């Protein structure tokens, strides 16, 4: 049963501006080491960062928490061997899932026209 739905849209140029202005400090605050490494290895780095950022926001909306009480690095965007994105949750995000008996978390990412989008569906 679906118990949460969240969507977020990020302007890629906004993400690029933040990354250029704050550099490693921004990356370390918002992304895990693996996320930053994978995004920076892509040809369009800002786009890859924007999609990961949108996924984190979409999860927080699906959970109904906003980012209050959650750290950006507690929500990690990963990909399976075929490239399908999924969320790996750590710390308080993982505890929230367990306490609320949420058993499924689905993620879809897209980008077009200078925007990155993410949709998260949570289910019990």
UniProtKB/TrEMBL annotation:
Gene3D superfamilies: 4'-phosphopantetheinyl transferase domain. It is found in: Cytoplasm. It catalyses: apo-[ACP] + CoA = holo-[ACP] + adenosine 3',5'-bisphosphate + H(+). Signal peptide: none annotated. It is an enzyme of class 2 (transferase). Keywords: Cytoplasm, Fatty acid biosynthesis, Fatty acid metabolism, Lipid biosynthesis, Lipid metabolism, Magnesium, Metal-binding, Transferase. This is Holo-[acyl-carrier-protein] synthase. It comes from Dethiosulfatarculus sandiegensis. The lineage of its organism: Bacteria, Pseudomonadati, Thermodesulfobacteriota, Desulfarculia, Desulfarculales. The gene is acpS.
């Amino acid at each position: 049963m679906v118990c949460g739905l969240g969507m977020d849209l990020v302007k890629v140029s906004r993400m690029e501006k933040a990354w250029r202005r704050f550099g490693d400090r921004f990356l370390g605050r918002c992304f895990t080491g693996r996320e930053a490494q994978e995004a920076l290895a892509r040809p369009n780095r800002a786009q890859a960062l924007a999609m990961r950022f949108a996924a984190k926001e979409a999860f927080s909306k699906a959970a109904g928490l906003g980012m209050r009480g959650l750290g950006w690095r507690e929500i990690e965007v990963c990909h399976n061997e075929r490239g399908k994105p999924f969320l790996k949750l750590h710390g308080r995000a993982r505890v929230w899932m367990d306490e609320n008996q949420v058993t499924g978390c689905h993620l879809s990412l897209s980008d077009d026209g200078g925007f990155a989008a993410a949709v998260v569906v949570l289910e019990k």
